[in-house]
């Protein structure tokens, strides 16, 4: 009897919770649509339609949760989220073996297709040592002299003009601009959730934490985090880097980092601009700033914390010129990228996600395809673009190599293969950011 009573009571509680959740989702949806329509009226009332109007795309909250103020966005429910996560888990078991959708020659695996190179740690380290010496002596003349590598007669651009880039997988890259070291969306572990809990990485990271410390001469200046999804922010790395680096994060993540003892944080809202010079040693002549720009995505590591923090992209500028665009994760909104291009284009070097776009009915509002990536390059007037966020974990239904192959095909058709392409894991690339020219290190 008592078991029957408790079962009946449990069923009523479950039904009540389910009804409350469904009602909350409906409320969020209609409130967001009302916000979007109100902003459209404000934009339509502008005196000059050619003005750059960011009002429409300022961050917004409904009932304490961040929402996407984009007409193109379709929110996902917890039911959809769980259903797709189960499908992804199933795919992760076989993804690195047969998901290439091609017949592999005998004894070959995805590692043969996704070759991992040894990063050029020495060039990162030498530049890091030079800028440290300049800051110590307050003499920055070395930054503006052309250099040679000890094993080559070829001249490299001055350190002040150098952008070094090494892709470590997903949206994680080690980047050095004029000797200043930046790590984007840090994830180095073999497993996405926790040690030995998948999805499993298809290939090991080309760098370890110790490699990054060596390459930066123990001076990783900045860590840019676009949002807190596990494939963009590894929990274990937060304590490892700690307060030795300045963390650049969207609104809402400062509290999360503080709970782990990290307080050296710049927290940014969409369209915020922050000078970085005060966070660096010495008195640099050049002026650096980071701009937080909108993206169409979502946040949260678990269902219960979904959208309590913001998601974003970043543009790093030097002396008023847009050098680096780190997009993180985003869906496609034509008007948004038109505005970003008008305000901050042209951009020298963009990192855009090209994977995790299938099935389209689920992924399209939150991720871009290679075709949309090319459109964004054109809208933001990006000179060089590296397509990332693919080939690292099996997180969606498209074949592992499809993002790379499709981007290569599209770039070739535009005669832009030299400019829009996918990086190779661990390979170090060098660009002259003053003249927007690539130098070959290998």
From TrEMBL:
Domain Metallo-beta-lactamase span(s) in chain numbering: 181-390
GO CC, one annotated term: cytoplasm
Pfam family, one: Lactamase_B_2
Alphabetical UniProt keywords: Hydrolase
BP-aspect Gene Ontology terms: N-acylethanolamine metabolic process; N-acylphosphatidylethanolamine metabolic process
Database matches in Gene3D superfamilies: Ribonuclease Z/Hydroxyacylglutathione hydrolase-like
Matching PANTHER family: N-ACYL-PHOSPHATIDYLETHANOLAMINE-HYDROLYZING PHOSPHOLIPASE D
Protein name: Metallo-hydrolase/oxidoreductase
